[in-house]
Amino acid sequence: MAVIPSTVARSIAGDSVHDGEFDLTQFQIDWLRDLAAGVTVRDLARRSGFSEREMYRRLRATYRTMGCSTRTEALLKATRRGMLEAT
User: Is 5 a member of any domain?
Assistant: First the structure.
């Protein structure tokens, strides 16, 4: 059994590995919308009542839930799925 970096595994498998539905809370969707609108993590943390460090942790967990490893990747995926449209 060999261990390969997740980025390599995703590249080999294609985007379909994490292309299934993911379950985000309304808070997480709102965070993504705010980030897409240009709100800083610092301001997002203040609005949410978290420290900046805790906000980064929660955002990383959100990205992982979406099958993403970066903010840009998560925002692109959310945009493609229509999650960032105003409700």
Answer: no
